[in-house]
Design goal:
With 376 residues, the chain is α/β, with parallel strands linked by helices. It is built from 15 helices and 13 strands. It has a 7-stranded parallel β-sheet with strand order 3-2-1-4-5-6-7, with helices on both faces. It has a 6-stranded parallel β-sheet with strand order 10-9-8-11-12-13, sandwiched between helices. The structure holds ligand GMT. The site of ligand GMT has 20 residues, from helix 1.
């Protein structure tokens, strides 16, 4: 099939899912066209089956805000016409679903009928989308998509609670290419470069936005390192990084924390991780936790949003209430204290990722595209 994918090209989870999906579809022989303002960060190859079309914004001094949706919908129309795209799959409702609706109307005028699949990822519903400034347009865009998917049962329910949605939302979980993580576990995994043999390695990956509660990550680590020799790796960049550094200095644990910045090689960094910390305020799924689990890492997280669908309490890790960093630290210590216990949690985490494997989820998206094609 010929599929157009619209996403944010950044390190955020929605962009990562969209990019991994596009690459996997192209590997299976579909023709995939990314339409976005930059080449997606995880898009590491291009071919005749996998192309990137840049949305360029004409800066005009009259505008305080440049009209990205207009440029995006015009680009969608251009690409659909030029490459006979059959389905547009937009990731993140704002403004992608809205721009797709406009593109669809413009194409209809020319006798071209395109189907729109919208995938809701979380903050487009929970934090931004339900705000009165956007709510009407987001609700309209969801209701006017041909197929709507959400990345967890929790996000589906939340969407139905916050908006008046007149169509069935299909749950399609985030997925993971387990082979990639298996490969990274090999001999290239140089754990010794970061920690002594008797030290445990804890990790957190995010965009360091307030919703991730990165200061709680530092607080949990501070408690853990009092009892267990350990190091903390912080991967990512964002507004709360300096707050985390300041707190680490105040608590006297800065020397044991490595701030590694953004990385496109998460699989290689996670290969030496023992425990992943995700104390988010809200998390519709928690792709970062799934990536850690695929790298055989146990997870300490909050019990918010879709996290209980990913991290199984007492099996792959533990869940605590938002903000209860002491409970999260106690749970972490109980896992890290003994090799045998740690190994059991790590193995359970790895096993649980089978449910979210690329092999299981990719055909679900293919069926969705096929049903769109057949109903054209
Ligand atoms: O978590 C972020 O800050 C990025 C955000 C995004 O929209 O790119 O991630 C959301 O989508 C991911 C992929 O579906 C989910 O795994 C994340 O849980 C979700 N983030 C939140 O709900 C906060």
């Amino acid at each position: 099939m010929k599929i157009g994918i619209v996403c944010y090209p950044t390190f955020g989870g929605s962009g990562v899912v969209a990019t991994e999906l596009g690459m996997a579809l192209a590997n299976k022989g579909h023709e995939v066209h990314f339409i976005t303002y930059n080449q997606p960060v995880r898009l590491d190859f291009l071919s005749h089956k996998l192309r990137f079309h840049q949305v360029l914004i004409e800066e005009y001094p009259l505008f305080e805000y440049q009209p990205y949706e207009l440029a995006l919908s015009s680009k969608m129309v251009e690409v659909v016409k030029k490459y006979d795209i059959e389905v547009l799959h937009v990731h993140y409702a704002i403004p992608h679903a809205y721009a797709a609706f406009m593109a669809k109307q413009m194409l209809k005028e020319k006798g071209i009928h395109i189907k729109v699949v919208t995938t809701l990822h979380g903050t487009d519903i929970t934090l931004v989308g339900s705000h009165p400034t956007y709510k009407t347009a987001v609700e309209f865009s969801i209701n006017n998509s041909d197929v709507v998917t959400a990345v967890s049962n929790n996000l589906k329910d939340t969407t139905n609670n916050l908006f008046t949605i007149d169509k069935e939302i299909q749950v399609v979980y985030n997925f993971i290419d387990t082979n990639k993580y298996d490969k990274a576990q090999g001999e290239d995994c140089k754990r010794g470069a970061l920690a002594k043999p008797d030290e445990r390695i804890l990790t957190h990956i995010s965009n360091f936005r307030p919703v991730k509660r990165v200061e709680d990550v530092v607080r949990i680590f501070n408690e853990v390192q009092k009892e267990i020799p350990s190091k903390l790796l912080l991967i990512g960049e964002g507004p709360d990084r300096s707050k985390a550094e300041k707190l680490a200095r105040k608590l006297g644990v800065k020397q044991k924390i490595y701030f590694l910045g953004n990385s496109t090689e998460i699989d290689k960094i996670l290969c030496y991780s023992d425990l992943f910390l995700l104390p988010s305020q809200t998390e519709s799924f928690g792709l970062a936790a799934l990536e850690a689990m695929a790298a055989k890492t146990a997870v300490i997280s909050t019990n918010t949003g879709g996290l209980p669908e990913v991290n199984i309490h007492g099996k792959t890790g533990y869940l605590s209430n938002v903000g209860d960093y002491k409970d999260m630290a106690q749970n972490a210590i109980s896992i890290l204290r003994e090799d045998a216990i740690l190994e059991k949690f790590k193995l359970n985490a790895k096993k649980h990722t089978r449910k979210f494997s690329l092999q299981n989820i990719l055909p679900v998206y293919e069926d969705i595209y096929q049903s769109c094609y057949e109903s054209k």
